Amino acid sequence: MCNYVSRRTVLALGAVAAGEVLLGEALGGAPSRRRVVVWSEGTAPKTVYPKDINTAVAEGLAPLRGWQIVTATLADPEQGVAEESLQATDVLIWWGHVAHGEVRDEIVERVHHRVVLGGMGLIALHSGHFSKIFRKLMGTTCDLRWREIGEKERIWVVEPNHPIAAGLPPHFEIPHTEMYGERFDIPAPDALVFVSWFQGGDVFRSGCCFNRGIGRIFYFRPGHETFPIYHQPEVQRVIANACRWAAPADCPPTRFGQAVTPLEKC
Amino acid sequence: MCNYVSRRTVLALGAVAAGEVLLGEALGGAPSRRRVVVWSEGTAPKTVYPKDINTAVAEGLAPLRGWQIVTATLADPEQGVAEESLQATDVLIWWGHVAHGEVRDEIVERVHHRVVLGGMGLIALHSGHFSKIFRKLMGTTCDLRWREIGEKERIWVVEPNHPIAAGLPPHFEIPHTEMYGERFDIPAPDALVFVSWFQGGDVFRSGCCFNRGIGRIFYFRPGHETFPIYHQPEVQRVIANACRWAAPADCPPTRFGQAVTPLEKC
Amino acid sequence: MCNYVSRRTVLALGAVAAGEVLLGEALGGAPSRRRVVVWSEGTAPKTVYPKDINTAVAEGLAPLRGWQIVTATLADPEQGVAEESLQATDVLIWWGHVAHGEVRDEIVERVHHRVVLGGMGLIALHSGHFSKIFRKLMGTTCDLRWREIGEKERIWVVEPNHPIAAGLPPHFEIPHTEMYGERFDIPAPDALVFVSWFQGGDVFRSGCCFNRGIGRIFYFRPGHETFPIYHQPEVQRVIANACRWAAPADCPPTRFGQAVTPLEKC
Amino acid sequence: MCNYVSRRTVLALGAVAAGEVLLGEALGGAPSRRRVVVWSEGTAPKTVYPKDINTAVAEGLAPLRGWQIVTATLADPEQGVAEESLQATDVLIWWGHVAHGEVRDEIVERVHHRVVLGGMGLIALHSGHFSKIFRKLMGTTCDLRWREIGEKERIWVVEPNHPIAAGLPPHFEIPHTEMYGERFDIPAPDALVFVSWFQGGDVFRSGCCFNRGIGRIFYFRPGHETFPIYHQPEVQRVIANACRWAAPADCPPTRFGQAVTPLEKC
């Protein structure tokens, strides 16, 4: 038998016996301070992203007032994802492209564990569809079709009341981008928020929400290292919205394993 | 051609031209003051619910600090759902049983319009599964099996990270209740949060989330007029959580109708 | 208490007592002969559809060998949907546009009842998104954006293993059509099979599956009365596939209402 | 760029050029002969399953007339899952318990590849929830709560029109079984067909459908090696239904990778 306990819950349970119902607190209060880690490989062209993509994305999260925004990269100790840091992270944003294979399997396991059992949110950006962690969470190849000729993309909101679409217009454009086209080999998302139109004639499910374990995952298509897409206000808004949506819920420890005594007479 | 515009959005758009992107505001701020209307028929036994079920449910919403909680009933003018009141309502909680047929069709249309096009949340409680408004939103019979012998119910959380399950233990019990059993004739919910076990041998999908238009709908099974179920802390917590979840999103006006000019050259 | 019983099941149950398990039959056998009714208003231009759209669609169903294909129209007795005919129908295909309002409410109720409680499949084509029956089954406005300049549409298969996509290429084109664009106000479909790209810059969820009651519903976007779209082989293939998918399951009578005796001691 | 091609499709495409639309064939015809492989570890008690669980399950599939039913076990060459066999398999049924860890990772990769890219169906039975292949496909822990005191289980059909519920009564019982209880850590299933009631007070999502890649996956809870559950007619019927549902669709090769030439002028 084993009881998995999330960090947040352990803290919350500090003053109460395990199993007690946490019904007393006020519902209107703000959650404790949130922490986002923005991770990228360090491979983006300096001409477009002088401080790499992690910094560009982090700068776009300024509207998350009161949140702590941190960057991390592949070259950092523990590949930027030390266990201690992870335990204190509410949302991890992941951009990778040419170095997916360099991320060590034990790092992937660690992140997976933190999402599924700890409730950390994960936001995979653009070529992050092929990262080890996203593929492990999806269980499919996450493969797709692509073309790199700098064509136009128009992103349509198909679920306008979803929190990740808050404050957006019905559609917005990315002037020049790499195309990703269907068939995108993912499980049907728990919510499909955005669909992209491409100048070259393709479509793509561009904003996809998933629940895995007690963690929330958002895949967001836009972003290519050769275009300044992460400086666009609409793209920044989506990522900020996604951070709020993906942050861990107030979720008691999930108890798995043997339940020796039946609740009813057998 | 027609453009449907929600109240909240119109207000929000007051100072900006239609179509402008609302990207500037801080994301950490609290929404404007929320308003919940708790509606019941006025038919519950006075011995159990001296001020009817609407008041009992309203009292349980005290943890929603800063929210305005209002009660309404069938005998009120406009059957408790005047257009003006509805336009100012974020979440409508609905409990009905013997008087479903007395609710006038134009009232049902009005509520439906406010949910689907205005984004008002709707929470249907217990026998509210057979209310005109819930059936209209679902498109099915919403029929089920039932038995009234006061048996025990145990409610299991199957999606612990859902906002509606916040603060709840893995399961909780209702000592005596009317049984509702499968097959429950609803569309597969967008999220299934609770499943009930009954002493008499039945199961039921007890907590079901739906998106319809830009409105959010939650069906919650517990509650029978002959038992003090709406005084239970866990039940109160679920309903309060559901109010927060179902409150309207920051959602720009949905534009339907003719789109005369193509966005691209044709 | 009431027990709803589908026609197919009653026939199947002929020789057995109600409640007996139907486990004995071979699984490899073909179902009994299927019957499809193709309904249209009778308003399509004779230059494009000389025998109206119902006949054009019916002709495209020739590959459904062994099926009975029937046409019906608004001017027929009982508006083409007599109770007796409906009881013998496995799949009803519905195309309407300017005459939605002329379909009488009791006819809509009758079709709804047959879908939800009897398991008849319903396929709504193109402007059938605004038919009374489709809107009643969806519970939303089913509104959308549209433009009629004869632009090109490209339909992408996003769920290639869905039975409705059988035999199709990854995408196919409609040279000239009326555009339908997002936001399409439907519940999130139980399966999203197709997404359309439009020359004018829009996208649309073009092939959507829904379960409602014990009936299956498919919405398929293509088709406008001023273009010969229902003569295209890919469009015909989709509709034929959808007939097979939507035909009633081997489904015992759903029992609703009071379940007097508990299955377990209480 | 890479094009993944399923065996079935390659065969089907034999006489046509890749990319041609397969619109010509009749829809009423039977698929080519299907092949099911039933795999188990070889660890069940001989007193209950003298020829192990694979044989018991295979015998229950007799109603699949015209199908080839084969058994396989861990001790077979290639752990019972040789590449050649897999390529000829339409549905793989998997029962494991104490030997999950012995299944080699490359075998798991092979089966995963065949499901996701080749469209083979996978049916995981009972303790197969913890098999490497099921966990890899789900992306979560697939953990749950359990108790082994031989209590009663009652399985309720919640989606009666699903093909996997064909021919079943509204509920059926398993007199003595091991209990599995929620929280079951799986992604929300694409269809939830069965929910279990347990004598000891628990519930469980017992019949869950998933699409992954172009493969279909069904998890079915019943079955414990110390009880003769796989001899029950209702259980056998479910597994046979699931084989029919999970068999590969008529699905053209999914093309991934670089799409050099845009379909529209850019």
Describe the structure.
The structure is a homotetramer of 266-residue chains. With 266 residues, the first copy, chain A, is of the alpha/beta class. The first copy, chain A, is built from six helices and ten strands; from the N terminus they run H-E-H-E-H-E-H-E-H-E-E-E-E-E-H-E. The first copy, chain A, has helices spanning 7-13, 52-60, 83-87, 105-116, 132-138, 233-246, and strands spanning 35-40, 68-73, 91-95, 121-125, 145-157, 171-181, 191-198, 203-212, 215-220, 257-258. The first copy, chain A, has a nine-stranded mixed β-sheet with strand order 2-1-3-4-9-8-7-5-6. In chain A, strand 1 (35-40), helix 2 and strand 2 form a beta-alpha-beta unit. In chain A, helix 4 (105-116) crosses helix 5 (132-138). The longest helix of chain A is centred in the C-terminal third of the chain and has 14 residues, at 233-246. The radius of gyration of chain A is 19 Å and the shape is globular. The two termini of chain A are 21 Å apart. The model of chain A is unreliable at 1-30 (pLDDT under 50).
